[in-house]
Amino acid sequence: MPENTTAPTRAMRLGVAGPVGTGKSSLIATLCQTLSGELRLGVITNDIYTDEDARFLKSAGVLDPERIRPVETGACPHTAIRDDVTANLLAAEDLEADFGPLDLVIIESGGDNLTATFSPALVDAQLFVLDVAGGGDVVRKGGPGIARADLLVINKTDLGQYVGVDVERMAREGREARQGSPVVALSRHDAASIRVLTGWVRDTLTRYRTGEHTPVDPGPMAPHFHADQDGEGGHPHTHADGTNHAHDHTPAHAEQSA
Question: Region Disordered: start and end of each range (predicted)?
Answer without folding.
Answer: 211-258
